[in-house]
């Protein structure tokens, strides 16, 4: 036997997974292309188009060459990978609204007014009401130009302010639009990047007097919107308990504006937050209920009708919930499986998973960065890969115990690939999720079944308050369980931190150990151990760096003066005192930074207002005292807050700072005024509300 034939057989065996899971390699290449475009955003689209065309043409050329030569097979595979990679970059480029010449943002600097249409229901905030609006025209010079794009419109609450409704046309002042910026808080959530991936670049904070209602007619003929409002009305008419009502609206219709924060936290701590967010769980339950209700269709020639009705109703439900990505994933997988069944094709679950992911990312490449999509796809993949093995750990003879064990096995299998992601994004380990997921699954099924029955009873004009009360009792009993589990979850499990490198090492170690368990190769075991050692070494290095750190952070927290002084693994606070457990600003500002800097040991003693850091003097001045310019006290950096009387010339004379930092405690109008006046005096200014959190040393 020739060496070429041997090598071809060896290569065929090594690449068997490509034939078994044909969508897996295109998915990996597509994801790589989407990530590549993020780092090469300035590259002209024509270059990606040429690269995609060349690689696709090369693949076609190699495909028509019928030969068993190993190099041809490798070349064919390589150009296919590059074709899908460049497809990912192209799709990402064209999905970015900025690449469209008719995006309103291109004309914004020269415009004075926007013609918009309300596209969402009102979302109440602390001091404002929020709507999403579609920009349809922009006034530039003396002309109205047709454009497109979306913005967030925040309207300050007022008794005389109207409640804008979907379909209304409004005129907005263009000069009030503000670019959505990242807070800059260390290790904090990058909201600006998240918004931009969803096509949002600007927001406006307006009084109702700034808004002109151009057309008061409402959107007509939207069957989905009308259906959603009917269902919302049925819930509000028949469910009197506000907590239960908000939970049904969130879990079934993706309306989370009125959901209680404490309840959300308890669900998050116990690892069952997925039952609130519309996810694959809801879709698969709906699929099961629909297939059960359609069992009366038993004739084989009409079986296609059963799947057609089920698929149509599932996608209608997805439309009702405004197409959340994780639910779209489940619906796509159900659709592909239904098509496979009707075509009498053998359905490979992992390949169906990869095909669904591929199609969804082709539709919206930026879903690759969506946390919900990542959690959803990883959870499903984890179940597909590990469930059968985990289920064999125990073999209960009792039917009830077997049912419970199957639920536990699914929960354990799902967590294997998901828990590193939970650590990375949410800084917590869902220790009791295995226990909590069983009652959560039962509750979710009963909630969906009861709610569907409630909708049906209400639709035929019968009272369903009694059913709403039953659902309320069910919800209250379930919440007793959730709160008890959240209470006994150790606080240490809720305050964990890993960075991107740690996450990648952790995932790699899991993959290698899994390959060792399935393939029994010693090389996988050794590689997994080596990766684990690298992960431990990373933790040690981060701890050593944290032990010798000396840093000060002025957080970007609206209406609060939040300043942390990090000294080793301890932290002390200047400015306002906040409760990390209940204060939202603290949760989203201070907590991520303290976790990231590994300084969770708070010092009760207030630090000195004057700090010496890296041979630089940093003074925190937020005292209601008038200063005498005759006294000199030079500092390198001066931090000022709303309590300090505004004395820019005196500050410059006394302190001679290189930079004055304005904290977040000032109202926006006052902070802008302070900054403008100090810059006129030649003083360098950093306002955290506009420039992001100030960290020294960087």
* Overall geometric form: globular
Gyration radius, rounded: 29 Å
What ranges have pLDDT less than 50 throughout 5 or more consecutive residues?
Answer: 1-13
Number of helices: 23
Query: Terminal Cα separation, in Å?
Result: 64 Å
Residues in helix, %: 40-55%
The average pLDDT score comes to 84
Largest sheet: 9 strands, mixed
The helix/strand class is alpha+beta
Number of strands: 19
Strand content: 5-15%
Q: Describe the oligomeric state of these chains in a short phrase.
A: single chain
Concise description?
Helix content is 53%, strand content 14%.
Describe the structure.
This protein has 698 residues and is α+β, with helices and mostly antiparallel strands. 53% of the residues lie in helices and 14% in strands. It contains 23 helices and 19 strands. Strands 1, 2, 3, 4, 5, 6, 7, 8 and 9 form a nine-stranded mixed beta sheet that branches. Helix 7 (223-238) packs antiparallel against helix 8 and helix 15 (399-426) crosses helix 16. The model is unreliable at 1-13 (pLDDT under 50).
């Amino acid at each position: 036997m020739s060496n070429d034939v041997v090598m071809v057989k060896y290569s065929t065996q090594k690449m068997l997974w490509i034939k078994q899971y044909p969508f897996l390699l295109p998915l990996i290449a597509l994801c790589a292309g989407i990530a590549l475009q993020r780092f090469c955003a300035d590259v002209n689209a024509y270059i990606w188009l040429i690269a995609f065309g060349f690689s696709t043409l090369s693949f076609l050329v190699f495909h028509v060459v019928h030969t068993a030569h190993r190099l041809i097979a490798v070349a064919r595979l390589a150009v296919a990978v590059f074709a899908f990679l460049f497809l990912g970059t192209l799709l990402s480029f064209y999905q970015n609204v900025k690449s469209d010449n008719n995006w309103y943002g291109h004309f914004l600097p020269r415009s004075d007014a926007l013609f918009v249409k309300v596209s969402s229901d009102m979302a109440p905030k602390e001091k404002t009401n929020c709507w999403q609006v579609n920009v349809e025209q922009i006034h530039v010079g003396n002309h109205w130009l047709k454009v497109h794009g979306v913005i967030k419109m925040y309207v300050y609450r007022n008794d005389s302010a109207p409640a804008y409704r979907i379909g209304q046309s409004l005129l907005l002042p263009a000069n009030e639009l503000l670019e959505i910026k990242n807070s800059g808080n260390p290790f904090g959530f990058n909201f600006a990047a998240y918004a931009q991936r969803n096509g949002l670049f600007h927001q406006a904070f307006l009084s109702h007097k700034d808004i002109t209602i151009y057309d008061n007619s409402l959107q007509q003929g939207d069957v989905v919107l009308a259906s959603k409002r009917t269902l919302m009305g049925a819930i509000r008419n028949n469910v009197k308990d506000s907590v239960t009502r908000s939970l049904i609206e969130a879990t079934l219709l993706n309306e989370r504006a009125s959901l209680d924060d404490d309840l959300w936290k308890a669900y998050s701590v116990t690892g069952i937050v997925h039952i609130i967010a519309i996810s694959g769980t809801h879709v698969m339950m709906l699929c099961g209920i629909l297939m059960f209700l359609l069992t009366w269709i038993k004739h084989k020639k009409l079986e296609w009708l059963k799947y057609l009705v089920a698929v149509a109703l599932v996608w209608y439900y997805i439309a009702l919930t405004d197409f959340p990505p994780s639910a779209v994933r489940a619906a796509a997988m159900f659709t592909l499986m239904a098509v496979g069944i009707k075509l009498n094709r053998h359905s490979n679950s992992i390949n169906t998973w990869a095909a669904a992911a591929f199609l969804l990312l082709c539709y919206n490449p930026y879903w690759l960065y969506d946390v919900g999509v990542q959690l959803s796809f990883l959870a499903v993949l984890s179940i597909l890969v590990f469930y059968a093995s985990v289920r064999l750990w125990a073999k209960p003879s009792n039917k009830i115990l077997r049912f419970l064990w199957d639920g536990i096995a699914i929960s354990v299998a799902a967590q294997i690939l998901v828990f590193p992601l939970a650590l990375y994004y949410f800084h917590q380990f869902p220790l009791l999720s295995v226990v909590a997921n069983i009652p959560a699954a039962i509750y979710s099924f009963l909630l969906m079944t009861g709610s569907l029955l409630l909708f049906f009873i209400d639709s035929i004009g019968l009272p369903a308050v009694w059913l709403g009360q039953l659902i309320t009792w069910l919800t209250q009993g379930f919440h007793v369980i959730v709160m008890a589990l959240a209470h006994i979850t150790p606080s240490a499990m809720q305050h964990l931190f890993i960075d991107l490198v740690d996450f990648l090492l952790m995932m790699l170690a899991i993959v290698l150990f899994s390959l060792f368990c399935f393939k029994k190769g010693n090389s996988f075991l050794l590689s997994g151990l080596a990766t684990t050692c690298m992960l431990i070494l990373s933790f040690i290095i981060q701890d050593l760096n944290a032990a010798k750190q000396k840093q000060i952070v002025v957080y970007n927290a609206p209406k609060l003066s939040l300043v942390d002084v990090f000294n080793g693994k301890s932290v002390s606070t200047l400015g306002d005192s906040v409760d990390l457990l209940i204060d939202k600003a603290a949760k989203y500002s201070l907590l991520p930074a303290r976790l990231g800097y590994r300084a969770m040991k708070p010092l009760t003693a207030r630090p000195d207002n004057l700090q010496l850091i890296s041979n630089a003097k940093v003074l925190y001045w937020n005292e209601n005292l008038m200063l005498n310019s005759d006294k000199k006290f030079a500092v390198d950096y001066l931090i000022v807050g709303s309590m300090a009387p505004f004395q820019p010339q005196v500050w410059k004379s006394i302190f001679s700072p290189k930079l004055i930092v304005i904290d977040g405690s000032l109202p926006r109008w006052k902070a802008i005024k302070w900054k403008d006046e100090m810059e006129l005096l030649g003083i360098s200014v950093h306002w955290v509300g506009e420039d992001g959190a100030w960290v020294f040393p960087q």
